[in-house]
Amino acid sequence: MKALVFGGPGRSAWQDARDPALQDASDAIVRVEATTICGTDLHILAGDVPDVPPGTVLGHEAVGEVVETGSGVRRIRPGDRVLVSCISPCGHCPFCRESMYSQCRGGGGWILGHTIDGTQAEYVRVPFADMSLHSLPEAVPARDAVLLSDIFPTGYEVGVLNGRVRPGDTVVVVGAGPVGLAAIATAHFFSPSRVIAVDLVAARLEAAKHMGADAIATVSESEPLVADLTGGLGADVVIEAVGLPASFELCTRMVRPGGHLANVGVHGQPAMLHLEQLWSRNLTIRTGLVDTSSTPTLLGMLTDRRLPTASLVTHLFELGQMEEAYDVFARAADTGALKVVLGEPSHDELTLRAGPAV
Fold first, then answer.
1. Would residue 257 be called left, alpha or beta, if left means φ above 0 and alpha means ψ between -120 and 50 degrees?
2. How many Å is the Cα radius of gyration of the chain?
3. What region holds the Enoyl reductase (ER) domain (predicted)?
4. 8, 142: one domain
């Protein structure tokens, strides 16, 4: 098969790779119908995730068809169309029993495209298939469903739920990339009084308005705007969705006393925690890796057309255009890319071509 293989920091190639095979009774082999590129993949390529070994097939998001299952798989069968979760829970360890799947100690957690071969390929082996795969109706387009592999659960769980958004809150989302936009959309589940999006890129701020942001601001405008809209108190909830020291520190300056700061961004460098300023402000700061425990709920909302997804997909490619897709996604400030989706050129409305989606 063909796959996107990591060659070490700064190096990757779409090349021949060994076909995946069942290794455990709980495994499934999935033929990839659609996949996408995550900001975490860019962090891997930049060397920010050093435990990814060279030779790993990247990617942790996909929609596909089950072609083979291990003897222990009970819930799915060959021929099923499925959503591949970015987290693979064993379902039995102490953390999985608490639905904290990201911290799985039974051989799972975030393993696809991290410690084992991932989804940016023609086929992928998915461990713990009964827990890691979600049945997907044929009527749900792959280009929408693949956004529920990672970004929507991440924005919702690590941003909105960890941030404890409540009715009437002022919510600030710093970083209007795909995960930040998902946080903006799902924050409205809890009826905040306003959601403010902060970014450096005008196109992303415009996208934030389409996803439900009530106000937008550049970084330099953000602190005065939040102060003005909250009478100088600060935001009830601030969500960091960038992963840079400067963006984290900006968030700490905009959250009100007694407020919540939820860190979603993947950090590759130390960030300063100014406890000399924060210790007395009764803040709650939460970090997290997505557990994907909310995926069934979000999938139900998507099936009922109650989850905005289509506007997040800006570019469509065939699988063989993986290297071109990475270039477009990595230069998002120039290309306007939010999510790029790659897949089979023959599948329904996922008749893919390079270039912006229409």
1. beta
2. 20
3. 7-342
4. yes
Question: Per DSSP, what are the bridge partners of residue 239?
Answer: 173, 262
Q: Tell me the per-residue pLDDT of 143-192, one tens digit each, with 9 for 90 and over.
A: 999 999 999 999 999 999 999 999 999 999 999 999 999 999 999 999 99
Residues 16 and 140 in one domain: yes
Considering the chain, what percentage of its residues have pLDDT values greater than 90? Answer: 92
Query: Taking 60 as the threshold, does the pLDDT of residue 302 lie above it?
Result: yes
In sequence order, the 6+-apart residues with CB closer than 8 A to the CB of 202 are none
Beta strands in the chain (DSSP E): 2-8, 11-16, 28-36, 62-69, 81-84, 123-126, 133-135, 170-174, 194-198, 215-217, 235-240, 255-263, 284-286, 313-318, 339-343
Q: Are residues 146 and 163 in the same domain?
A: no
This prediction has a pTM of 0.93
Give dist(CA 43, CA 46) in Å, integer.
5
Secondary structure of 89-112 as H, E, C letters: CCCCCHHHHCCCHHHCCCCCECCE
Tell me if 358 is assigned to some domain: no
CA distance 30 to 115: 18
Q: How far apart are the first and last CA of the chain?
A: 30
Of 286, 318, 353, the residue that ends a domain is 286
Report the CATH number at residue 321: 3.90.180.10
Q: Return the bridge partners of 350, or none.
A: 347
Q: What is the pLDDT of residue 60?
A: 98
Task: Give the amino acid at 90.
Answer: C
Domain that holds residue 192: 159-286
Cα–Cα dist 137/154, whole Å: 22
Report the alpha-carbon distance of residue 244 to residue 232 in Å, rounded.
25
Please give the distance of CA 338 from its chain centroid, rounded to a whole number: 12
Q: Are strands 170-174 and 194-198 parallel, antiparallel or unpaired?
A: parallel
